[in-house]
Every structure is written in C-alpha cells, then in structure tokens.
Amino acid sequence: MEAVQTFDPAAVWEAVKTVLSVLAACGIVIDLTPGIKFQPVRWVLKRLGNLINAGVNEQYEKIQKRLDELQMEVTEFKVDSWRTEILDFSDSCMNHRRHTKEQFDHVIDTLNKYEKYITENKLTNGQVDVAHEYILEIYKQCIRENDFALDEEEEKARKAAAREARNTRNGGKES
Predict the structure, then answer these.
(1) Which of 38, 140, 166, 171 is a good FRET partner for 57, with 20 to 30 A between their CA atoms?
(2) What is the pLDDT of residues 60-117, one digit of tens each?
(3) 108 Cβ contact list (under 8 Å, min separation 6)
(4) What is the mean pLDDT of residues 14-30?
(5) Quick check: is 55 in a domain?
(6) Contact assessment for residue 82 and residue 132, using Cβ atoms and an 8 Å cutoff
(7) What residues make up the domain containing 165?
(8) Are 138 and 93 within 8 A, CB to CB?
C-alpha cells in the first residue's frame, strides 16, 4: 500500500507567508526603483481597493446622479417661482393695484436674479421681458410723482392726519 502524504497546515501556512514576504520585498524594491515603470505593489493595492470599494463607488454614483437631478429640480422651481412672482406683480400693476416702494424694490431684485439666470444659461423669455419693462415704467412713474402706496403704519398715520384736518375744518367736531 502506498502511503498518502498529508500536509501539515502550519507548514503550508509558513510556506505561504515566506513566499508572500519574498514577493512583497521584490515588489517594493521594483516599486522604488526609479528606472522601472511597472509598480506591482501599487497595482495590487489599487486592484484590491477597487474590489473592496466597488459597492461604495456604485452607491456614490447613484447618489451623485440623484443629487444632480434634485439640484436641477430646485433650480427649475426657483426660476419658475421668480417668473410667477414677476408676472403676478406685473398683472397687479396692470389692474391698478398700488404697491409700496419696498414691494417694487423686492420685485426689481427678483427681476435682476431672473435676468442673470436667463443670461448665464443663454435662455429667452419674452413674457417676463415685457413684464420687466412694464414694471420699470410704473416704478419710474411712481418715483417721478412720489406716488407709492403706503405701508400699514404710514396709512394709519395718513388717515389720522386727515381726520385731524377734518376736525380742524369743522371746528373740532368729529365727522
């Protein structure tokens, strides 16, 4: 009968460790030698890193794609809200609703943001251009005539002054 030779696991492990140590030492020497372009240790580490991070990289790419989509949605929403605000303000001016100077300043600031976005992204929008011109025309007219709507406190003070003037004209009697 032939004897079956078995390997001692400890001896096999020692042999593997020795071979790996020799290969690592040779790889490091080759890696650090300036004239040799092949870098085996770095190549092995890079491959190992790619294998370990494959799932993470895939998840990162999915997250990045979704983030880009959300950024685009937010930008579209913001631009659409600017457009809506500008057109609503223009419409209210056309319906002869009076606005305070602060309201005009706010909508003009919104117009400037919208215009900057349109210019940077090489877009056109005729509706807002017409509204922009109309709002600026009304604004200039209000400045020339000093005819802005008053805010709530100013309106109360104006009414109180008018009431006082009526009382004075009527000889101190409330009317």
Answers:
(1) 38
(2) 999 999 999 999 999 889 989 999 999 999 999 999 898 989 999 999 999 999 999 8
(3) 135, 136, 139
(4) 82
(5) no
(6) no
(7) 78-169
(8) yes
d(Cα 131, Cα 79) in Å, to the nearest integer?
A: 15
Q: Is residue 53 part of a domain?
A: no
Q: How many domains does the chain have?
A: 1
Which tens digit of pLDDT belongs to each residue from 43-58? Answer: 777 888 888 888 888 8
Does any domain span residue 88? yes
Identity at 37, one-letter amino acid code: K
Q: By the 8 A CB rule, do 85 and 110 touch?
A: yes
Tell me which DSSP letter residue 96 carries. Answer: T
Contact 149, 98 (CB under 8 A): yes
From the centroid of its chain, how far is CA 43? 39
Q: Residue 2 has what pLDDT?
A: 64
Give residue 159's identity as a one-letter amino acid code.
Answer: K
- DSSP letter assigned to residue 37: -
Contact 27, 44 (CB under 8 A): yes
Q: Which two tokens stand for residue 172?
A: 């101190």
Is 60 within a domain?
no
Please report the pLDDT score of residue 168 as a whole number: 79
Residue 54's pLDDT is 82
**Amino acid type, 121:** N
Q: Is the pLDDT of residue 28 over 80?
A: no
